[in-house]
């Protein structure tokens, strides 16, 4: 069921990026913006931050850094640069959350300032990605398939946008068994928010209740 949900979200993003009359960059893809109907079919919702462009334009910039802490790509959170590849980064976070059953921002490892992305990369380097899988899935899922999803998520989470696949490639990777490239170290820009609600980095704003945030650059 989780894989079917992921496949449908990926196809939805592919439609927005490539198949719709105007290319649409969502800019705020996250779990709370995915609606499920009675048959567990997902629908991408909340397009308040979305950007539409011509079919030949796949990126842009803005002086207002908008998105949700924990899902924003590094280039978006730092420089206000957005593209279809920033949506790919957000999809990578969402993929990790669905596989692990944990939220990126709420995850900690041994009391240290590690988020879910950090932990996924640590386990991947240690050749123990199975430890990331939601315990309620371990005895019923196809382990090879889920580990493949973890690898796909790490490819989506690459720090440099040119290293990330586009959604056409993501859909193909999710629906085939073709060999995958090895991921490089992902972007670790998004860090935990302290229990007092203070941010660990002065470069970003955040919200501890997972709502959308917008920051203005100083003139």
UniProtKB/TrEMBL annotation:
Keywords: ATP-binding, Disulfide bond, Glycoprotein, Kinase, Nucleotide-binding, Serine/threonine-protein kinase, Signal, Transferase. SUPFAM superfamilies: Protein kinase-like (PK-like). Residues 1-188 form the Protein kinase domain. It holds the Pfam family PK_Tyr_Ser-Thr. GO terms for molecular function: ATP binding; protein serine/threonine kinase activity. Its EC number is 2.7.11.1. The keyword Aminoacyl-tRNA synthetase does not apply. It catalyses: L-threonyl-[protein] + ATP = O-phospho-L-threonyl-[protein] + ADP + H(+); L-seryl-[protein] + ATP = O-phospho-L-seryl-[protein] + ADP + H(+). This is non-specific serine/threonine protein kinase. It comes from Flemingia macrophylla. The lineage of its organism: Eukaryota, Viridiplantae, Streptophyta, Embryophyta, Tracheophyta.
């Amino acid at each position: 069921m989780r894989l079917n949900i992921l496949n449908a979200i990926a196809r939805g993003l592919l439609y927005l990026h490539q198949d719709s009359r105007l290319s649409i960059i969502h800019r705020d893809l996250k779990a709370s913006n995915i609606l499920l109907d009675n048959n567990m079919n997902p629908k991408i919702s909340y397009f308040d931050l979305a950007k539409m462009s011509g079919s030949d334009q796949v990126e842009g910039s803005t002086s207002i850094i908008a998105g949700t802490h924990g899902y924003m790509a590094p280039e978006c959170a730092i420089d206000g640069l957005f593209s279809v590849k920033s949506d790919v980064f957000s999809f990578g976070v969402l993929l990790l959350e669905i596989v692990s059953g944990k939220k990126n921002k709420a995850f900690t490892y041994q009391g240290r300032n590690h988020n879910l992305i950090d932990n996924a990369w640590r386990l991947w380097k240690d050749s123990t990605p199975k430890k990331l899988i939601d315990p309620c899935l371990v005895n019923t899922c196809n382990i090879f398939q889920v580990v493949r999803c973890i690898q796909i998520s790490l490819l989506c989470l690459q720090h440099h946008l040119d290293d990330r696949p586009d959604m056409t490639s993501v859909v193909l990777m999710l629906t085939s068994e073709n060999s995958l490239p090895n991921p490089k170290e992902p972007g670790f820009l998004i860090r935990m928010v302290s229990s007092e609600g203070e941010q660990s980095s002065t470069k970003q704003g955040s919200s501890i209740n997972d709502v959308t945030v917008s920051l203005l650059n100083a003139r």
